[in-house]
Amino acid sequence: MSLTDLDLSQVTYYDLNNQINIPVNGQIPLHKDQEALAAFFKENVQPNTMQFDSLKDRFNYLLEGNYVDAQMIDHYSFSFIERLYDVVAKEHFQFKTFMAAYKFYAQYAMKTNDGAYYLEGYNDRVVMNALFYANGNEQLALDLADEMIHQRYQPATPSFLNAGRARRGELVSCFLIQSTDDMNSIGRTINSALQLSKIGGGVGINLTNLRESGAPIKGIEGAASGVVPVMKLLEDSFSYSNQLGQRQGAGVVYISVFHPDIEAFLAAKKENADEKIRLKTLSLGITVPDKFYELVQNNDDMYLFSPYDVEREYGKPFAYVDLTAEYDHMVANDRIHKSKVRARNLEQQISRLQQESGYPYIINIDTANRANPIDGQIVMSNLCSEIMQVQTPSVIDDDQQYTTLGRDVSCNLGSTNIVNLMASPDFGHSIETMVRALTYVTDTSNIQTVPSVANGNQLAHAIGLGAMGLHAFFAKNQMHYGSKDSIEFTSTYFMLLNYWTLRASNEIARERHETFYHFDKSRYADGSYFDRYVNQSWQPKRTKVQQLFSGIFIPSPADWAQLKAAVMKDGLYHQNRLAVAPNGSISYINDTTASLHPIINRVEERQEQKIGKIYYPAPYLSNETLPYYESAYDTDMRHVIDVYAAAQVHVDQGMSLTLFMRSTVPAGMYEWKTDRTDKMTTRDLNILRTYAYKQGIKSLYYVRTFTDNDDEIGVNQCESCSI
């Protein structure tokens, strides 16, 4: 029996897994999931995995069939490959849940060309990743295999899936591109969106610089069509460029909250929008400067400025003008056309759309730029709102060629598994190993079809190491999400990620005698970035947190001063190092909770295509951990914001922070609702967005709402750039 003719009615593992959701004597029958896991291997994996007489025979088959990268294999002796397999096998890796095994074999395991048989198990995929990212360095391959088989490190989905395959897609997760205010640039942007969507991954596009609807073109009044028609073209492009139907193309469009088309931009996502303008699949994001919060707080009018006029006055595209600093000057400048709205009315429109659809994402652009140690300006983010890197605009001529090649972004992501990394025998060495794996991705990535992306990657060498499993760690160690202990733990953990990624990047710069572009103009080079670490101690102060980090090196101000001197002397290889992406299916394979946010359910229900429902119990679920696994929908979102804010202090890029709301708010959760309706209102979202801004949060991802009908609004269906 092979995968293609597997009779699902004859297997038992789905029914066994489904029994988790049926309490027995008030208890969750977790043993049924273990029975399902065992049955899955017996009934599916074992009979449908191609067998070989020896490892040599297996590799001969894979090479002859063009399944694995022959050039990668040529970097190593076969005796070393055998040794690597032995090292991995001695760890006796086992999936802990049915969901983890099912997800791996359904989505990640290499199969024969006809899909009839599995060609690898988890150990094989780990070895392929280790060999690929080590690029011939045997010790690094051993180190990487050790990190991955212990699930301390998880490459991003495209990296983990494609590493070592002869016929593979790109290793990068997503892209950021931008358009300027001319037809050549718009045309090139649409072409770039098609090309990048074909490669795979989500595409973020900044349209802030485009002139508004009705603006003049070469003296013709009312000629410009504005951003919405361009958004429709982009949505159609993503629908068309979908990797031969294998996946839905995915993109997000950003504009400034001060763009004259902002209301039309938001209206295009409404359920009742006219079909000519309605956006069904394109995601929306807005960049929000400090000035907007000030105008809202004061209940003032706000002016929306013509991008064409602003660029003409300031000599640079609208997105690159500091609106908070220049707002009053722009208001007073009669040469800049402007329109007026009430700031609070616009705030209400944003909240209403978030209630209805989960959009738009919010990028607190001044917050991001204040924290940015790199020379240049952050003007947008990506499809999951965690990538924040400086960009520069391109200039395109009538032949669609670059007369000025700007800098755009490709995202090279990976994640630490917090529970397992905290048990690492050498925390710092683990992080260095991960940085070296990610460095190989950025070094070998070359998106030639979009030169601005290739240029940005080659200059920046940027990576994004993040984390998953925070709630699992809290529950396992009996900490309530949002407690003082949980916040200090989060701060300490991400401080360590920051310290060790800086150490690793500095070491690589020293080895290669190379730094990222314009390192000399950064706050790393002048040392000011390190002041907050040198001038105060970040050692944990709470007893429980001290115990959790017992045996783990915590750098002192003197250690930070030493690192500061090393970086000022030899530089950093990577322009950016840290970013916390959302975790899709890969967190299940790691048998942990996704990203940094709380779980949704103690036993999560997933609807799988062609299969039906699969249930996934929260990691380490027991009578002891049960009280610490409160649903995100029953959690005060200020606690979530506080946890993310503790991490954000140390993360040079951003984090995908989702707000989880109930349409009927639990009694007593938010004190401002004592004498008002218990239904979620736009006021609730207004307050929470402002709270996040004041806590230093750079971005807010989706708003997910659990309705009284047990539906979810604003659920993220996009796996494109999930880790």
TrEMBL record:
The keyword Oxidoreductase applies. Transmembrane segments: none annotated. Residues 560-582 form the Ribonucleotide reductase large subunit domain. It catalyses: a 2'-deoxyribonucleoside 5'-diphosphate + [thioredoxin]-disulfide + H2O = a ribonucleoside 5'-diphosphate + [thioredoxin]-dithiol. Keywords: Allosteric enzyme, ATP-binding, Deoxyribonucleotide synthesis, Disulfide bond, Nucleotide-binding, Oxidoreductase. This is Ribonucleoside-diphosphate reductase. PROSITE patterns: RIBORED_LARGE. Gene3D superfamilies: 1.10.1650.20, 3.20.70.20. It is an enzyme of class 1 (oxidoreductase). Provides the precursors necessary for DNA synthesis. Catalyzes the biosynthesis of deoxyribonucleotides from the corresponding ribonucleotides. InterPro entries: NrdE_NrdA_C, RNR_1b_NrdE, RNR_lg_C, RNR_lsu_N, RNR_N, RNR_R1-su_N, Rrm1. It comes from Levilactobacillus bambusae. One of its GO terms (cellular component) is ribonucleoside-diphosphate reductase complex. Belongs to the ribonucleoside diphosphate reductase large chain family. It comes from the Bacteria. The lineage of its organism: Bacteria, Bacillati, Bacillota, Bacilli, Lactobacillales. Its EC number is 1.17.4.1. GO terms for molecular function: ATP binding; ribonucleoside-diphosphate reductase activity, thioredoxin disulfide as acceptor. One of its GO terms (biological process) is deoxyribonucleotide biosynthetic process.
